[in-house]
């Protein structure tokens, strides 16, 4: 394992990407395969655009690679109809993860082989940017759900909750947080084990109080109708 870690948008985006993608997979949602990738210092040297080159240089080290879905197109809410239960599952997931980046402006979803695929969970788990108040953050409803691109279609939120909540057992959540490399967890000033445990406890605590974000989502959807 590389002693360095890199991501153009910062190591916390890698953590959120890995946790978000793997939890989505547990819930039966379609996510392109994620694999660890070590990027060499020579990566991006031939890029002519200086701004892009800076991002590529910042990505050197242990990173994540996402399987390329050849022929996929960006999800357009005005051109495609989404099943109510599927939309509800995705909204529920993003409320759990506090994913602020699945809006009409940036849907972070792809159509591929007539199926909806989820990409880019790097803006999730925003509690880890302030870190100290993670317990309080785990209990909060997700007020940004009002801007979720699939909220108008999410007609079965209670049904989605009943299906998904039991799937995320503590054992499964721990299996996901155990995937986090130590080199990604060294930036918080605590031991990697302690930091990994905070992610586990945040997710299990948020799940134990899922009614908080479920009710907020139901209220937000009622306000749309």
Describe the protein.
The chain starts with 10 loop residues before the first helix and ends with a helix. The strands form two sheets. A three-stranded antiparallel beta sheet has the order 3-4-5, with no helix packed on it. Strands 1-2 form a two-stranded antiparallel sheet. It is 41% helix and 10% strand. With 225 residues, it is mainly alpha-helical. The protein has helices at residues 11-26, 50-58, 84-97, 134-139, 157-164, 170-177, 192-208, 210-224, and strands spanning 34-39, 61-66, 73-74, 109-112, 115-118. It has eight helices and five strands.
Number of strands: 5
State the oligomer: single chain
The main β sheet shows up as: 3 strands, antiparallel
Give the overall pLDDT as a whole number. 83
Number of helices: 8
What is the radius of gyration computed over CA atoms, rounded to a whole number of angstroms? 18 Å
Distance between the termini: 51 Å
Gross geometry:
globular
Low-confidence stretches: 1-9, 42-47, 49-60
Structural class: mainly alpha
Assign a percent range to the helix content: 40-55%
Give the SSE string.
HEHEEHEEHHHHH
Quick tags:
mainly alpha; 41% helix; 225 residues; three-stranded antiparallel beta sheet; disordered N terminus
Topology at a glance:
Blueprint: H1 11-26, E1 34-39, H2 50-58, E2 61-66, E3 73-74, H3 84-97, E4 109-112, E5 115-118, H4 134-139, H5 157-164, H6 170-177, H7 192-208, H8 210-224
Antiparallel strand pairs: 1-2, 3-4, 4-5
């Amino acid at each position: 394992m590389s002693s360095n870690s890199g991501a153009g948008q910062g190591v916390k985006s890698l953590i959120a990407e890995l946790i978000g993608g793997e939890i989505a997979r547990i819930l039966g949602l379609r996510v392109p395969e994620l694999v660890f990738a070590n990027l060499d210092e020579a990566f991006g040297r031939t890029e002519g655009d200086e701004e892009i080159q800076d991002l590529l240089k910042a990505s050197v080290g242990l990173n994540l690679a996402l399987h390329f879905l050849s022929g996929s197109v960006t999800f357009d809410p005005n051109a495609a109809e989404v099943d109510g239960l599927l939309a509800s599952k995705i909204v529920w997931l993003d409320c759990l993860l506090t994913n602020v980046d699945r809006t009409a402006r940036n849907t972070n979803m792809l159509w591929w082989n007539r199926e909806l695929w989820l990409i880019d969970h790097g803006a999730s788990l925003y509690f880890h940017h302030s870190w100290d108040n993670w317990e309080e953050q785990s209990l909060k409803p997700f007020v940004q759900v009002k801007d979720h691109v699939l909220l108008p279609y999410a007609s079965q939120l209670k049904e989605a909750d009943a299906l998904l909540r039991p799937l995320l057992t503590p054992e499964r959540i721990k299996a996901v947080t155990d995937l986090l490399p130590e080199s990604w967890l060294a930036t918080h000033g605590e031991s990697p084990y302690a930091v990994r445990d905070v992610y586990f406890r945040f997710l299990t605590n948020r799940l134990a109080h899922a009614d908080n974000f479920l009710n907020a989502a139901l209220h937000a959807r009622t306000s749309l109708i």
